[in-house]
Amino acid sequence: MSQEDRAMSARMKTMPYPVRIPKHLLELADLRAAEEQVDRSTALRQLLHVGAVTYVLDVLAKGRISLSKAAELLDATPLAIVEKAREHGVELGAHVDAYRAAEARDRPAPHRAGKRRPRSTTRPGSP
Amino acid sequence: MPFRVVLDSDGLIKLAKAGALERVVEAWTCLVPRAVYVETVERGLEAAYPDAEAIRLVLPSATVRRAARHPRAAALLQGKRGLGRGEQEALHLFFAARADAIVTDDAAFVAMLAGAGLRYLVPALVLVRLVQGQYLEPAEALDCLERMRPFIRAEVYRAARDDVTAG
Predict the structure, then answer these.
(1) Are B24 and B16 in contact (CB under 8 A)?
(2) What residues in A contact B128, CB-CB < 8 Å?
(3) What is the rounded average pLDDT of the residues B82-111?
């Protein structure tokens, strides 16, 4: 590994890993490299990242990993993950049975008299 | 005794997107683990997400708590690889601060909390509770729910809308 590669690895928190890549994926990487004007290794990393995002959103939606874990795995903030999910049309969050279970357990409503905000008297439909 | 909730990143983000976080902070005692604040607010500000700034402005500094350790949380987290640092610290803080509930919409975290019999509130249910506790008007809650809608499951949106409407 050259000094430049080592420096880049430190910057991007990368490490070398030997892997055999199918010829058609290398051809795809070359196509992307030409399109994006990057080198073949960068194009491969970009394609790997695209696949990683898709996979992380999939396991996040299935509840196999959490939002914070997803952010860690993609080296991103949870805000970015939530936005990516919306862009990809991936529905995230607890299911309705979890909502109903929490709703049933949590009745009646918790409130604190000292911090109560009085309701407006101009509510639609109020006398 | 004031109602005390711990918020994870998922809870913070969805309540902020709904425009309801400020009401939650006013109504209840809110606690946010340091790891959650770092991953959502500080990293979010670095990446220039407007929601990060909105959360920073709403959260009083006293709500952000440094990492706590609690043996019950450690026991529950043993062998759990799917949770990130944010949820882990939220669980430790929940026990250490003797909070009443954790506010989260994270399916993996909710499954773990439900399995352990721990109390949680999903953000859509928080809106319902704010209405029932008279901290929020039903019409305001429905507006908040509309803003939250793109970020929660459709079935949860419908259930919460029905509950808000039913009062």
Answers:
(1) no
(2) 103
(3) 97
Domain that holds residue A10: 3-106
CATH for the B4-166 domain, from 3.40.1080.10, 3.40.50.1010, 3.90.1300.10, 3.30.450.20: 3.40.50.1010
Strands B64-65 and B29-33: parallel
> A111 vs chain B: nearest CA distance in angstroms?
5
Nearest CA in chain A to B167: A109
Q: Is residue A8 part of a domain?
A: yes
Min distance A89 CA to chain B CA atoms (Å): 9
Residues contacting residue A113 through CB under 8 Å, at least 6 positions apart: none
A127 lies in a domain? no
Q: Does some domain include residue A75?
A: yes
Q: Which residues, listed in sequence order, are joined to residue B121 by a DSSP beta bridge?
A: B103
- Cβ of A68 within 8 Å of Cβ of B39? The answer is yes
- pLDDT tens string A25-34: 999 999 999 9
The CB-side HSE value for B67 (13 A sphere, CA atoms) comes to 9
Whole-structure pTM value: 0.87
- Tell how far CA B155 is from the center of its chain: 19
CA distance B38 to chain A (A): 9
Among the partner-chain residues A69, A79, A106, the one whose CB lies closest to the CB of B121 is A106
Q: Does B157 touch chain A (CB under 8 A)?
A: no
Per-residue confidence (pLDDT) for residue A115, from 0 to 100: 52
